[in-house]
Every structure is written in structure tokens, then in C-alpha cells.
Amino acid sequence: MKKHKNNFKKVSYFSKTPVFPRFSFLLITIVFLIGLAAFTINYFSHSNVLQFFCSLSILIMSIYFIKSWILIRKEYNSSPLKKLKRFIKENKLYEEDIREVGTNENGSIKRRKIVVNSIYFLYKKTENNELIIRALKRADRFSDKANSYETLLSALFGLPLYKKIDEITYCDYIFELVPDERIILSHNPLKKTDTTIRVTHKIFYDISKVSHGLLVGSTGSGKSFYVNSKILDYARMGAELYIVDPKSADLSLIRFIEGFGEKRVASKPNQIARILREVNEIMENRYQKHFREVSAFGKTFLDFSLPPVVIVIDEWAAFIQGVDKKLHDECSRYLLQLILKGRASGCFVELILQRPDTSFIEGAVRDSIGCRIALGNMSKQGYEMCFGSTDIDYKTITVKVGGYIQIDGQHNSPVYFETPLIQNNFNFLEELQSIISHPLRNPESNRNREADAQASERSVRVFSIN
Ligand SMILES: Nc1ncnc2c1ncn2[C@@H]1O[C@H](COP(=O)(O)OP(=O)(O)OP(=O)(O)O)[C@@H](O)[C@H]1O
């Protein structure tokens, strides 16, 4: 079996069984015969001690070899190589042709069916415990169907398909050997701060590389619970949080937490516009102060110890539809600026929508959002508006907190995941309060926090003059 580039191993109809499993039976037989010969010689010798030790070592050796042989065969039989070879044969993924192979005794031409072409698969197991099966598209009769084996391959390996990536020259089927697990939210004493958002045990990202979030889902799909877990992650990294909750629902209760109040939590249109303006002002102020010189090239807010500033906006569509044109245009402009310009300065938007609609969020803006999530079942158009057009078959979501996620730089198509579990005894507001008042919350950025506060106060003054 040939090794392909990127550590892939190649399998086709023509692949041979590797040497060890192929000759292991022969090896065992040889060992057994040697043992038998030794036993016979030993039997006819007259020393009892020699007889005993010889018999014992023969017995141990035989057991060891038989066990190794069973293990090798077992490993080989369950290997992707053996399974894919069987798959190719049973599904006739090869081409035969009748060829002349000589002459018969009576002089007539001898013909035989021989295999002339086969589908080619590559496979590898990754460090993340994923099994990648790659069906090659070699411009032959197997190319058209290379992207249609998900059900068969799932059955072959007894694993659900995790991801499928359809490219011009190949189609990758990715299976998780160790399934991902949900995080269980629990009281988590702050030990150190970093800029990671944790989604599941396997899925997480750094906000300095992946900025902004879009969360879409119908009512009851788990959006608010999921955004709570994101808010805690942001709070742990020392972020300055602003909450926009036009429905005055659960999120607006954050105003009762010390340090939030009406200044940071808005429900009424004018308050919402003020908060959006304030965060824009902070962003512009940071650009003026830190990013004007050429030395700032390639730097981000982390290089200047600036805390992230995050604005969480629940039900953007409901809000923007219900305001007059002036406010609509103003708020839309602020949102757009933040999404397009916010990353380097550390100003981020977490946008929550009941359904993705291009009238609320345009394709180009959506594409600037690094982490996009659709919770619950959605129509094809719904998925398309959230992730752009992809070639994946979204499975029916039966678990309430299940959905699809696509993170820039990590996934080139959406993958299934389940949001962190929030148990009944977990008190989100208490946890947020304990994080916010923790002394470890990014002490070195306090100075910059003050500068931001001055900027936002200036913005409030401008707003009240307006
Ligand atoms: N991560 C979770 N852990 C535990 N329970 C959850 C989780 N997510 C959702 N639920 C359950 O589902 C219910 C609905 O979730 P949630 O309120 O987050 O939905 P939603 O999408 O925000 O709905 P709406 O748009 O109506 O506000 C919750 O009250 C809770 O019982």
C-alpha cells in the first residue's frame, strides 16, 4: 500500500494486503513447527529440568505468537484499508475489460476478464481523532459519484458523517472517531484570562483571529442560553460588555449587575442607538490613538493591552423594523461600521436573529462575521443566508440545543454541534457578577478601560446635544 502526500494512504481495487498481516499465518506456522521440533528433541532427552524449561518456553512462545497473530489480523480486518477494499469490491467500483491473455490448446484465443480501472480512495487518521476518507475525482467514470458516498461510508465505518468537503479534484468525508462533547457550564473560578470562546470540547476560537458572531434560530432553539455562555467567556477575558435587548427579556436583567446598569444595557430605541454610537466612538478613538502610526501595522488590540469591547444585540430584526427611518439608517450604519472595522481595535458584535434575512444583514456583512451559528432546523434558504451556499446536506436536528456552526479559518463548511449545557442549578447572573468583580479580570487593561470610558462619556455628551 502506497503512502500519499499529507500522510494519506491510498486504497483501490489493486491495493495489496500489507506484508505483515499477509504473511503472519506463515510466520506462526514456522514458529509452531520450530516449537514442535524442539519439543520432540526435548522429549527424547533425559534431563527432567531441561524438559520442563524447554516445554515452558515453547508454551509461552506459542501463546505469544498466537496472540500477536490474532491481534494483527483483528487490526487489519477493522482497518480502513481492508474495509475500503471490501467496499470497492462489493459496490463494483472498478472497471473490467475482456482482454486476450494467450491461446488455448486448440489454437483459439484465450480471453479473460481483467480489472482495468478502479476508484481511488485516500484515508488518514488525524491528531484530532478524525478519520478522513478522500474519494479522488480522476476524470473517470467514478468522478461523478465521488461526492455521493456519505450513507454507504457511514454504514461501512459505523460512524455518523461529521463533515463533507466537496472539491474539484476530490471529496472528503470526515468522521469523528472520538465524538465531540458538550461543555457543561458550571461555576468556574477565574484562574487566568485569555481570549478564547469555548463552544464544545473540540470547537473553540480566539476572538483576535475570529471576530464577531451571528446566531440565528427560531424561537425556543436555545439562542439566549447559548449567548449566556458566550457572555461569560467574554466577561472572563475582561471584555467591556454592552447589551441590547429590544424585547426587554432575560438579557436585559444584566442591568442589575454591578457595573452594568442603564448605561450598558439598553432596551428602548434611543438607548440602543446611544450604545451603538458609544461603541463606535470607542472604536474610532482606539484607531486614532493606537493605529495611526505605520508601526501599528498588523497589530491588534491585544498588542496595546486593550480590553475587548463587545456589544450583544438580541433580536436585531425586531428592533430595526420597529424604528423610524432616521434611527434605522443611523443604527444600521453603526452596526455595519463595527462589523467591518471592529476587529483590530477589539470592538466586536454578537448579533442574534430569529431568521437570517438579507434585508437585515447583507451577504458581504455576514461574510465579515467570523463565527456563524444556526440553531435548530432551518429551511434551505435560511441556512444559505447564514452560511452562504454550501454543498452540505443538513441533517434534521432532533436535539433541542443542536445546530450548525462555521468558524472562519477552521471550517470550510458548517459542522454540527451542540451548545453548552446549562443545568437548572446554574445561576447565570450570579456567575457573571462573580466574574465581573474578580480582581484577576485583566488588571493591566484597566488604564485603557478608563480611556475608553472617557471616550464613551464624550459620546454620551454628543448624543444628548443632538
Ligand atoms: N444550553 C442549554 N442548556 C439547557 N437548556 C437549554 C439550553 N438551551 C435551551 N435550553 C432550554 O430551551 C429553552 C429555550 O431556550 P432559549 O430561551 O435559549 O431559546 P431562544 O432561542 O432564545 O428562544 P426565544 O427566541 O423565544 O427567546 C430554555 O428555556 C431551556 O429550557
UniProtKB/TrEMBL annotation:
TM helices/strands, residue ranges: 20-44, 50-72
Disordered as annotated region, ranges: 440-466
Record keyword Transcription regulation present: no
Presence of the UniProt keyword Transcription regulation in the record: no
Source domain of life: Bacteria
Cross-referenced Gene3D superfamilies: P-loop containing nucleotide triphosphate hydrolases (3.40.50.300)
InterPro entries: FtsK/SpoIIIE/SftA, FtsK_dom, P-loop_NTPase
Protein keywords: ATP-binding, Membrane, Nucleotide-binding, Transmembrane, Transmembrane helix
Location of the FtsK domain: 200-384
Binding site for ATP: G217, S218, T219, G220, S221, G222, K223, S224
GO molecular function terms listed in the Swiss-Prot or TrEMBL record: ATP binding; DNA binding
Pfam families, sorted: FtsK_SpoIIIE
Entries under PROSITE patterns matching the protein: FTSK
Name of the molecule in the record: FtsK/SpoIIIE domain-containing protein
Organism: Metasolibacillus meyeri
